[in-house]
Amino acid sequence: MSTTDRKLSVTIERFPIAGVFSIARGSRTEAVVVTATITEAGRTGRGECVPYARYGETVEGVAAAIEALAPAIAAGLDREAPQEAMPAGAARNALDCALWDLEAKRAGLPAHVLAGIDRLGKATTAYTISLAEPVAMAEAARAARERTILKIKLGKPEGDIRRLEAVRAAAPDATLIVDANEGWRPDVLADLLQASADNGVALVEQPLPAGEDAVLADIGRSIPVCADESLHTRADLPRLRPLYDAVNIKLDKTGGLTEALRLAAEAEAQGFAIMVGCMVGTSLAMAPAMLLTPRARFVDLDGPLLLARDRPHGLVYDGSTVSPPSCLLWG
């Protein structure tokens, strides 16, 4: 390979959300993504990330961090190098996934085969119900009646039991996941976990703020609790082991597919159930995360379903079922 053949470009793109996406921390009407594209000898590898202010990221800062690696990319940087050169986060995710895509196209093999996965099948994904008043959330749940798994955004403790009961009444047969997005408090935690159990919730995500979740070690519960904001990479697992039953692996937190695959294997070995999740992005961001679905008990890759439009050659969704990506999209 002639290293002068390689070029990196970075773009910022905006995709309108269908309606409003609301969680405990706020609402938004568009997804702003950063895409890394690496070209080499007529081949193209792409990776998309979603900068997240919760983790101190800005769109401009993430784009600049990726662009700073352009000389190294031109010099032949391989997929392992960014694991040491960049911190875990959105910028490394876009670059890592672009390198995976390029490697797959160079080898003429699907990315899942390069990752040691014999077969990548369809998966059943959750569908998100945004945080709102109980009546509005119930209406949204009824409108999504063909979805078999609903992920309910909560995090406003004073009204969350009413929201949960309204959604359960509107969707009596759906599997429910509750995501509090760090919005609950220790003084109401036991009551809200019990209400979740009473309403047949299968999993509660990140009920308390990351770093303030030690109380989970002492809370008796009859429902699994999953770490999201508290989990980024394998280095977090020892602290989380006494606190959580499951971990939500998102590529924008792990810094790409390379660390995500290693994290999933290590978490599974330590007894955690695996959830694979996403930020609100396009099918290009979901595609590499599909490689984690064979290990996952819960899949939440509904980002494109929340958008008003997706990329060309996007993932194919049939109700709650999502198919693996076409090589025209990624991998």
TrEMBL record:
CDD domains: L-Ala-DL-Glu_epimerase. It comes from the Bacteria. Gene3D superfamilies: Enolase-like C-terminal domain (3.20.20.120), Enolase-like, N-terminal domain (3.30.390.10). The keyword Isomerase applies. InterPro entries: DgoD-like, Dipeptide_epimerase, Enolase-like_C_sf, Enolase-like_N, Enolase_C-like, Mandelate_racemase_C, Mandelate_racemase_N_dom. SUPFAM superfamilies: Enolase C-terminal domain-like, Enolase N-terminal domain-like. Binds 1 Mg(2+) ion per subunit. Residues 134-226 form the Mandelate racemase/muconate lactonizing enzyme C-terminal domain. GO terms for molecular function: metal ion binding; racemase and epimerase activity, acting on amino acids and derivatives. Its cofactor is Mg(2+). The keyword Isomerase applies. Its EC number is 5.1.1.-. Keywords: Isomerase, Magnesium, Metal-binding. The active site is at K153, K250. Mg(2+) binds at D179, E205, D228. Belongs to the mandelate racemase/muconate lactonizing enzyme family. NCBIfam families: racemase_DgcA. This is Dipeptide epimerase. The lineage of its organism: Bacteria, Pseudomonadati, Pseudomonadota, Alphaproteobacteria, Hyphomicrobiales.
